[in-house]
Structure prediction request, 690 residues.
Amino acid sequence: MPIICPLPDLSKDVITLGHGGGGLLTHQLLHNGVFAELTNPYLDQQHDGASFELYGRTAFSTDSYVVDPLFFPGGDIGELAVNGTVNDLAMCGAMARYLSLSFIIEEGLSIAELQRVIQSIRRAATLAHVQIVTGDTKVVQRGKGDKLFINTSGIGSIHPRAEIHHRRIRPGDRLVLSGRLAAHGTAILSVRKGLEFETAVCSDTVALGATVSKLLDKWGTHIKFMRDPTRGGLASVLNEIAELTAYGYFIRQDSIPIDDQVEGACEMLGLDPLYVANEGIFLAVVDKEIAEEFAAMLQAESTGRHAAIIGEVGEEYRGKVVLRSRVGGRRIVGYLPGEQLPRIC
Amino acid sequence: MPIICPLPDLSKDVITLGHGGGGLLTHQLLHNGVFAELTNPYLDQQHDGASFELYGRTAFSTDSYVVDPLFFPGGDIGELAVNGTVNDLAMCGAMARYLSLSFIIEEGLSIAELQRVIQSIRRAATLAHVQIVTGDTKVVQRGKGDKLFINTSGIGSIHPRAEIHHRRIRPGDRLVLSGRLAAHGTAILSVRKGLEFETAVCSDTVALGATVSKLLDKWGTHIKFMRDPTRGGLASVLNEIAELTAYGYFIRQDSIPIDDQVEGACEMLGLDPLYVANEGIFLAVVDKEIAEEFAAMLQAESTGRHAAIIGEVGEEYRGKVVLRSRVGGRRIVGYLPGEQLPRIC
Prediction:
């Protein structure tokens, strides 16, 4: 009697175009993979959108995540997609409440990898106290995407004491950076280049909503502006604010917190850490009277241990960012003219 | 004297990775291409998110658009991305107010094409009375995307008289289809296959918010449920509701409005119009007492001229969709087992 060895049904293990067609496979993928993992009363309604009540000042933000690789030291695309949008809302002075989640999957992605990302999304959403309430899944042909792109959009309630607007920035305000620079981008590029360090260089991805909420409870309108220096790094954020406010932004290199190993890695990789992406820190522009206490309060938080006052806003060099280097020289820090690190977030 | 003929600066005409890097090129692209076209007080703030006041019942929806080709008879990816999300909100009984807009661009897309899409987005947003308030732009390497993917997420205010939920559906309720079936998917596939018809088969993409708002003004809670049969078509939507409500859904083939040419094209292309995507029609489940007047009211609208009562909800065949064919036979219409048309929306 011949031994019958059936071929495994590979169609069950990888995403096919049919998973994006709106038919049976889409239905099965959503029911077994997504709804089961991310269940909540909004999502469970399985309608074209989610419904809820909202009262008052609201923030709305969106980001698509195309990071390569999907999994990296310190995180993955799923965690990044939750934290990134939670943080964009936090920078508006808002606590994230509802997230949408949209996948663009390249045919051939393993369902196991997708599941790993979805589990990571669930964990990150739980930690950030945000609910995934509506979503979408599309599949594109092999070679027409790159494994997985994720869009999250988020709705948050703005803190009652928040008045975050670049128009409120004045000369004399202090620039506070909440943590060490350049960890995320350096971690991604290290993996891509196959570099290894004594201890792993890890992405700093973390949700900042709770920290920002505490700061707003205490400092309210003394906090003028916040922005997380993701893609393009601290230099790009400072240039954007400099241009919008037409003041000068002065930073001191020796005040900017950076991990020695990250700094060494940046040197090896030929990166200027000022332009490298971060995913777990933010820049705050605050009244000079509160700057010291504000930084001290941040230092007491796990997400702000390395916070530091890194500079100030001035009336000279209007529209420019000026760095005082460790040796005392001054130079203008411009926008990055080209591309330093593609697909970093 | 030699004739000097400088090479055109092609970097200015196509999207490069640098346009997604967060540096100078991103900045220029946004300022010259996006903010100028889509200007409004929310977007002009250029922050990580938009802020506004919201009071009451709110709907939230997201969709990523990966349609291929980007431009097709009757519309393009930009118009689709606005109307699609506006319509998802309308199906929740909500009028779209704020949209987010996120681009994932493949390196090499011509800036002229991107501009054409952005202009189309602006026009569609104006027609639908919705504002693009926040956005994101990413660029992926050549061969890692396909020209342009767009995500829009939307926030809408739910109509005070709306009570849209599948739990409200009861046996006896009537199924009303607001327009002719299968135009969008047939138009896309015709272009892909290079088919030509006597008159062009065009996508039906249109915003349905205003129509739905009028219907809700008049009929309120008599409207039990609405859903637009996009990807997967009418058959998939009916199967989903059948499963959620555990009633039987009975439709009559000779009542379903379809354009002769679209029906002919579907036959030629080997498509069952019940599974073909639509972008400008919706299915409403309504009280039987109002069904006739509801359909008549729709027929007076430009977006509902071909509206028809196509069937009803029953207690038999629970969880199933049953079609009575033109010759009188009955058959169960299931989920599409595989993929009929990839990248249709």
